[in-house]
Fold:
Amino acid sequence: MGVFFLKTGALVFGPGLAIVPLLRDGVVAKHHWLTQAAQFLDAVAMGLITPGPVVITAAFIGYLVAGPAGALIATVAIFTPIYLGVVVPGRWFVRHRENRQIKAFVTGATAAAAAAAALSGAVVVLTRQAVTDLATAAIALGLLLRFKKIPEPYVVAAAGALGILLH
Structure:
């Protein structure tokens, strides 16, 4: 489990949700540590309600697989590549922040990380698992209204009420 999360952590760059398809493939399809719908969606939901969704999702998956020791292993493993790649050389980056080539690299890497395509895989994976009937489709449609500049608390309240009414 530690090796899997170490490799996964090495591939994390940009938005945390971009890693969802890779996580799902590893923990559900390849290793069968979690079930497709319920456990994996719970793990992603736990990550999304907290700061640092990748680390929290990994910790939750590790906990489900092997208890507190699994949570610790998954957390350390997924965070180690980020730490080695950003925190350790951080002073070097700060010293060279005015370098044109460094700026160009950071600009390009940031654009790549922010690309909508990086998140589209997560959207597809999560939607296929979460929207399973008419009720969940109605709730998902309600969430899409969020993009029409409706304040988030109203969307959450409406989706919750809709869930209660439909079930």
